[in-house]
Amino acid sequence: MQHNHVPSATEGWLNWLLGRGNDLTPHGYCLLWDPALVWTHVLSDALIAAAYFSIPVMLVRIVRKRGDIAFSWIFWLFALFILACGTTHLVKIYNLWYSAYELEAAIKVVTAIASVGTAIVLWPLIPKILAIPSPLLLEEKNQELQTALDRIQFETGERLKAEEALRQSQKMEAVGQLTGGIAHDFNNLLQVLSGTASLIAKDPTSPKVQKWAEMARDAADRGARLTGQLLAFSRVQKLELKPVLVSPLIEDMSDLLRSTLGPQFNLELDLLAREDQVHVLCDATQLELAIMNLAINARDAMPDGGTITISTTREQVEDGELAHGEYLRVSVADNGTGMDEDVLARAFEPFFTTKDVGKGTGLGLSMVYGVAKQSGGRAEIASVKGQGTTVSFLLPVVERHAAGETGGERVPEARDATILLVDDDDDVRHIAAGMLEALGHRVLSASSGAEALELLGKEQPDLAILDYAMPEMTGAELAREMKARGFGDLPILFATGYADTDSMRRAVGGDPVFLAKPFSFDELEAIVGKTLAGR
Q: Which of 27, 195, 336, 445 could bridge to 301 as Cys pair (CB 3.0-4.6 Å)?
């Protein structure tokens, strides 16, 4: 018995969707079933469908691999839209033989919804998408960022250099204050030693004692030079700044330099020509001492001998550290052992030395540093380990001006004067009093300002010698109090171990006369005689 199959509702709907059982004509009919034309459509739609289907696969892979992509959900929407487009082309192939136009319509509906939805969401996203930087823009921004980073690194490096320079300057300033205080106290000790030796030398004793006194006085003089270097570094010893021609000064001391250095050292001078020479503001004596110290340092850096070159050059300075203008660079160069970075960083510190014990005080370079600073310039060191060292200092160029010639003055003789001597150091006061008495003067001794004022109420001295740095009442304060009590015409000498004449003049007022400790017998005699004669 034959049974007729009755399709179910689902099968009926699927047949309708696939175009089976309807009366619609397949698309191939419209092409007259031309094989060439039909297969052209088949191949074209198949390739288009394959391309469409590959695109969603790539989009999905990109989204999965790159979770940081902005608006990743739009990729899924694109995948749906393109997948629907590819399916449409497959249906077109099917429709060449079957009339599944209902399926094609359904897929087009899906495609329309996906395309419209994509268009709707894309328009508001356009500004945000445009805001996403392109690779070229990113490269430009990276270049700008790198340039800014380089500038920041440069500025940071410059700031670190400035901070290091400031720390070094503060350290040198602190060390200078310390050494200045030590030198001041040491000068008082030297005054006692030098004064005692001078008094012993004045007293007729045995030749042996005279020799001992002379040795003690020489030792005091060496100590005074040592403290002078300390005070030059700390810049509390005021230099006698005058216009100086440096090249002739170096030429004049060249013979002394050669004899000091020895025959195994070759001294070369590379100095400015006569027509190029300029005056600089400095203390000629201290400048000679600074050059000698540098030459000796250069000699010690070449134990097997070598060449030392002293040169002078002119240059313009506009670096902000010094006043803008023309400077003379004085350089002393050697081809010796050189310095490493650690030694170079500490070279200007007082008492710092790499020499063996007993072969140096470590004050040569610090003295050069102080002289350069007080002259309005600066000191510099350039050195390479194993290749040599060049130490130079810049001195400001000045116009030459007329200066009165001094020298050959006769020291006035004065005897039997009454002199008020005020010093809080008992030893210094007793020695100074002995020296004055040896000169034939009568001495009124006081250990403080109050005691001096009490003596002035009883005596009328011809001269007052006041220690400037005293507790409770300084020499400047005592001088003002003496003036207020009617002793304004009394000549005053200020004795000090500092000799910072600028600050002292501001404190005292006028043009006071200073006597630097330690002073010798002859210096004391000269300045006392001149002051009494001037009265």
A: 336
Does one domain contain both 313 and 383? yes
What is the C-alpha separation between 381 and 337, in angstroms, rounded?
14
The pairing of strands 325-334 and 306-317 is antiparallel
Give the separation between CA 434 and CA 443, rounded to whole angstroms.
Answer: 9
535 residues of the chain, pLDDT tens digit each: 455 554 565 655 556 556 665 667 777 778 778 888 889 988 998 998 888 888 888 877 877 777 666 666 777 777 888 888 888 888 888 888 888 777 788 888 888 887 787 778 777 777 776 676 667 777 888 888 888 888 888 888 877 777 766 666 655 555 555 555 556 666 666 776 677 767 776 666 667 666 666 767 666 666 666 666 555 544 445 556 788 898 888 888 888 788 878 888 899 999 988 788 888 888 887 788 788 888 888 888 888 888 999 999 999 888 777 888 899 999 999 988 888 777 777 777 755 565 544 444 445 577 777 778 877 888 888 888 888 899 898 889 987 543 333 334 444 445 688 999 999 888 888 888 888 888 889 999 999 989 999 998 888 899 999 988 888 888 888 888 888 888 888 899 888 876 555 666 676 777 788 887 778 778 888 888 888 886 6
- Residue 105's nearest CA partner among 32, 43, 34, 24 is 24
Q: How would DSSP label each residue in 242-285?
A: EEEEHHHHHHHTHHHHHHHH-TTEEEEEE---GGG--EEEE-HH
- Taking each helix axis from N to C end, the angle separating 207-234 and 364-374, rounded to the nearest 10 degrees, works out to 60
The answer on 266 and 309 residing in a single domain is yes
Q: What is the pTM of this model?
A: 0.43
CB 312 within 8 A of CB 330: yes
Answer whether residue 169 is part of any domain: no
Give the domain CATH number at 283: 3.30.565.10
Number of structural domains in the chain? 3
